[in-house]
């Protein structure tokens, strides 16, 4: 063990020689290794900055930054057998259930993954739902529909109850989506055989019969890709290449490009708390509200027109996964499309920007979950919102005389009594005095400059996962100015030709139109030439009157 660090939440972080790092919380460990994106498993040092980020120094892999409460990825390195998760569901016990592309259903209890049942192997689980009796219903590609029943000993063990495909009256082959309505009936949507309804008996003891709807009953296609149910109990259906359909009271209304739908291919759909229907096509997002279609595309700052998933959080915001990043849509009447859009990519902590279809949920603890090509990711929305309200800014670099300076190299030069010159090959910096180096940054905690080094610049950034384009900064230099600068997205500033004096640079950040974060400060001094010092003046006065 090379290093042990306690963070501001009291968690202990452990740096190892060959096993990366891990932190312990509530007696359980969370690991970060090369499987989670660490550049090297040989860790030499740890440091937590004032934004709660953990900086990791490695041997051979440089420095890594870990944002513990940002996007957290789970894959096979964490025990999840298959990194391509095809469906995510939160059951009545609050556990997260996962359908995978090759290895059946899985369940997560706290931070540990379990195979939900050993009776279903090597299958693609397109959807997971819980029925009235507490059984879990699985839509399995080309293997029918399974019901598994929870075991009595724990919350993660399930047993196979039955394969509904074995019922001669019930022949779904590739169930893509399962919905439980307000009467506890189950709706199953098949990619080949249309729509099935399993009707619960009045005494709620069994599913007594099944009703099937196909093109013979008004559907445009028997190939159903996805479905959703709104507050009016209207079932909305995405039909392969044939638009969408609204199903209620055995009546079907079809919508295609002829009715104003931008595209007949709808990949996924979602009904929000205002009963708006969100549709994902290859042409961006389409919203159906009060019988009218509206559209949101990359022209409105969407990261991609290839949208794959939707989920609404507790604040009424819509998160849209795409094949090129994640988008947060917040109602904004001033925006042309009616929503302000914040995009998230790898620079915000995502390991993959390719989000898989349909896989997006909010769990009981206000965590958002998505499936990507690199594994399942989780975002703590409580922490996310706290950081969005008050993002913490950090100084990244200090420039002198319009030149980047390696202060570590300068310190070495001073210790070796050798020159460190500016680009003009004349001006030496060896008269600079400084405090201790700031960990993991190449500048000291304070500076004492000679009078001829009188220009200084600062570059800065928030470092907690916020999208950079929605962050604003303001600053002032105490000793030169009293008022703050205007809020701006510019992340650097410079001061030239400063007079000898003591200065304090103050810096603050905020999200656009949100409350600002804490003020950070940096102190430096420009010392006067010897002929402007008090002792020199006293000496001259004495010499003149002798």
Describe this structure in words.
This protein is mainly beta and 546 residues long. The strands form eleven sheets. Strands 38-39-44-43-41 form a five-stranded mixed beta sheet, with no helix packed on it. It has a four-stranded antiparallel beta sheet with strand order 1-2-3-4, with no helix packed on it.
Distance linking N and C termini: 70 Å
Overall geometry = elongated
The portion of residues assigned to helices is under 10%
The largest pleated sheet is described as: 5 strands, mixed
Q: List unreliable stretches of 5+ residues.
A: none
Short note summarizing the structure:
This protein is mostly beta strands and 546 residues long. It is 5% helix and 45% strand.
SSE layout and pairing:
Blueprint: E1 3-6, E2 12-15, E3 21-25, E4 28-32, E5 43-48, E6 54-58, E7 63-66, E8 72-74, E9 85-90, E10 96-100, E11 105-109, E12 112-115, E13 125-130, E14 136-140, E15 144-150, E16 158-163, E17 175-180, E18 186-190, E19 194-200, E20 207-213, E21 224-229, E22 235-239, E23 244-248, E24 251-255, E25 266-271, E26 277-281, E27 284-289, E28 292-296, E29 307-312, E30 318-322, E31 325-331, E32 339-344, E33 355-362, E34 367-372, E35 375-380, H1 381-389, E36 393-400, E37 403-404, H2 407-415, E38 433-434, E39 447-449, E40 456-462, E41 471-478, E42 492-495, E43 501-511, E44 520-526, H3 534-544
Q: What are the salient characteristics of this protein?
A:
5-stranded mixed sheet, single chain, 45% strand, 4-stranded antiparallel sheet, mainly beta, 5% helix, 546 residues, 3 helices
